[in-house]
Amino acid sequence: GGGFLPTPYSDIQDGYLDICVIENAALPKILNALPKYQKGTHLKLDIVRFYKAKNLKIQTNQDVHMQRDGEVSVARNLNISILEKGLKLRVPHSSPLKENL
Fold first, then answer.
1. What's the CA gap between 27 and 91, in Å, rounded?
2. Tell me, what DSSP letter sits at residue 90?
3. Cβ-Cβ contacts under 8 Å for 78 (sequence gap 6 or more)
4. Is the pLDDT of residue 98 over 80?
5. What is the DSSP letter of 96?
6. Distance from C-alpha of 4 to C-alpha of 33, rounded to nearest angstrom
7. Which residues contact 53 (CB under 8 A, 6 or more apart)?
8. Given a cut of 80, is residue 89 above it in pLDDT?
9. Which residue stretches of the chain are H helix?
């Protein structure tokens, strides 16, 4: 979103959520990492962790504002999961996605 590449090696067809977590760090360190995060060159930074999952559950002690596809909401519990083959796409014959459809 917004020109940022948090998971530059993600694959929309592999059946996994690609998760990028920025560890708790001092604000100057996070701000220093931001340009790399935007370009997708943050892969080896010590404050960055990557995970792949079929399901993700997030629980907090307080309300968290979040955004999903442009819709803003507030929650304390969030469950995200992959819906295998849940989206049908029309792609040009020249698309590399066509090989796996």
1. 42
2. -
3. 56, 57, 58, 59, 66
4. no
5. G
6. 12
7. 16, 17, 19
8. no
9. 27-39
Flag whether the pTM goes above 0.85: no
Q: Quote the tokens at residue 64.
A: 């968290």
Rounded Cα–Cα distance for residues 4 and 36 (Å): 9
- Tell me which residue of 40, 30, 32 sits closest to 3, measured CA to CA: 40
**Tokens 């040009």 label which residue?**
92
Distance CA 32, CA 52 (A): 25
Question: Tokens 């960055």 identify what position?
Answer: 48
Q: What's the residue count for the chain?
A: 101
Has residue 76 got a pLDDT over 60?
Answer: yes
Report pLDDT digits (tens) over 26-45.
999 999 999 999 999 999 99
Give the max Cα distance, the chain.
Answer: 48
